[in-house]
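We now fix the convention by which a protein and its fold are recorded. The integers have meaning only within a learned vocabulary of local backbone shapes. A record is reproduced here so that you can trace the correspondence yourselves:
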Amino acid sequence: MSRWMHRSCCAVFLLLPIMGTAQTTKVSHSTAGNDGMRTLVWSDEFNGPNGSRPNPAKWIEVTNGAGYGNNELEYYTPHTANVQIKNGSLQITARREKYAGRDGASRLYTSGRIETRGLFDLEYGRVEARIKLPHGQGLWPAFWMLGDNYDRAGWPQCGEIDIMENVGYEPTKVHGSLHGPGYSGGHPLTGIYTLPGGASFSDHFHVFAVEWEPRAIRFYVDGTLYETQTPKDLPAGSPWVFDHPFYIILNLAVGGFWPGNPDATTKLPQTMQVDYVRVYRLTRGSDAQAGTQ
């Protein structure tokens, strides 16, 4: 998520830890003529009982009302009213309700945010999720990754990969962005995907993904490649900060400098539904996997 203040070679890939049995699928690589392989190395299908919490072995639930330097209006809570499994999907719900946390922050909205921080990191590969977005002015759903050195290096030096962001006043569009030193906040490396025919991302589920290699990050919606970023796209003198582990984040923010605040047209509660999150190792053709640690 664009945190204003926080916030064609053989693939080199690191996953910590690897959970479950790897599954291999043959796919066509979008930027190469040869076939490639995807090996599933981590996932959450969110198939728990209705009303259950996200798997604590895979996710931490954030409790915070700091506004994240974006002037956000929500307080993230771990309550099932904001974060729960229901009907085979993760449901993150934003609500209009006054909430005062122990940190002294008082907010007019509640919502949810979950992260794999400290539980699962990845370096390179394909990261995808099937998501149905909420709708309404002032809502800001996001599926993104943050460098695991955030606490040490700070933002944007840690790097940020926004796989999908949507702001409520653009129901037909999503943004894919990279943030780093010299290209952060309101000036990231970014691209926009617009649904054809005026359709809204809140109408149906869509698959959002990145394919991340040492010198390239590609952004997809429903299998369509719409953006590629490489070190050649950086502003002069800016470093490429995407060669170390990142963790995954899902959240639904309310208000802030970019989306603006909810207004009289905003109908709450609104829910971001996540069918699954999957991480794959990528191998092109017969290339050997390099650099696994």
